[in-house]
Amino acid sequence: MPQHRSEPRSSQADDVPSPASDSPTRQSSRGGDVLIEAQGLGRHYDEGNVDALADASFCIRTGQYVAIVGKSGSGKTTLLNLIGGLDRPTRGELHYDGRPLDARSDLDRHRCRNVGFVFQSYYLLPNLTAAENVQVPMFEADYTPAERSARAKELLEQVGLSGREDHMPSQLSGGEAQRVAIARALANAPKLILADEPTGALDSETGDSILRLLEELNRTQAITLIVVTHDEAVAARADHRLRLADGRIVTP
Ligand SMILES: Nc1ncnc2c1ncn2[C@@H]1O[C@H](COP(=O)(O)OP(=O)(O)OP(=O)(O)O)[C@@H](O)[C@H]1O
């Protein structure tokens, strides 16, 4: 269980650099410039008086593949939600591409323009076709209807679902539904994909193909990939691991 509120301690990731040792302007052989920098990040819930996340400091560079790993309740989703602008920290600072993620307007823009989300349960809209689901985030950007339609077709092709444009979510397998969700995550050409237990609802073979698809996007398009998992085998595939226990980043 997470710790209740206490004085912040210094925290370390197992191999994700800390901001103090890694300035945002430096280059690294394992990634580009710093994309995400957290300093003393925390999320306290008054309800239950829980520090879901406490004193998290780390850097993630453009193009890196990072797993956030830890047991159930260790704070993985809390951290992912902060990075994605779905929630705001109660302590500390978070910068994306050198800019603070502070104001509500910054978070809204960040979510729509910078981040593609992939969730365990896909969250496809059941009354929309696969192509229409992929188009949903595009309404937040400046695409014409023709561009939206062409881009959705192209993205579905990219995730291996050519010819499935008009399928309803109920007509798709779990793996296919997750591929549609990945195409949707790519809709506005994000620099960052945040995937929360993306294989959690799939059998191991299908889950492996979904991870390979995400890894290919990371490798070929330099999309920074952050995967939340409780599965050590999934975490081992990433280049770096941010390991959480009781809301704190720990060394292995
Ligand atoms: N809205 C909330 N209100 C109060 N406590 C919360 C809330 N959301 C999360 N928590 C608590 O914060 C802690 C961390 O939750 P979080 O969902 O981040 O963990 P997790 O590592 O993602 O767990 P899991 O692997 O089970 O999804 C848990 O103890 C949880 O009960």
UniProtKB/TrEMBL annotation:
Q: Where is this region: Disordered?
A: 1-32
Q: One short Pfam family name for this protein?
A: ABC_tran
**How is this protein annotated for GO cellular component?**
membrane protein complex; plasma membrane
Q: Which InterPro entries match?
A: AAA+_ATPase, ABC_transporter-like_ATP-bd, ABC_transporter-like_CS, ABC_transpr_LolD-like, MacB-like_ATP-bd, P-loop_NTPase
Which UniProt keywords are given for this protein, alphabetically ordered? ATP-binding, Hydrolase, Lipoprotein, Nucleotide-binding, Transport
Q: What positions does the domain ABC transporter occupy?
A: 36-252
Q: Which GO terms describe its molecular function?
A: ATP binding; ATP hydrolysis activity; transmembrane transporter activity
The EC number(s) this enzyme carries: 3.6.3.-
Kind of enzyme, top EC level? Answer: hydrolase
Q: Which residues form a coiled coil?
A: none
Q: Which SUPFAM superfamilies match?
A: P-loop containing nucleoside triphosphate hydrolases
Return the similarity comment. Answer: Belongs to the ABC transporter superfamily. Macrolide exporter (TC 3.A.1.122) family.
The protein depicted here goes by the name Lipoprotein-releasing system ATP-binding protein LolD
Query: What organism is this sequence from?
Result: Stieleria maiorica
What is the gene called? lolD_2
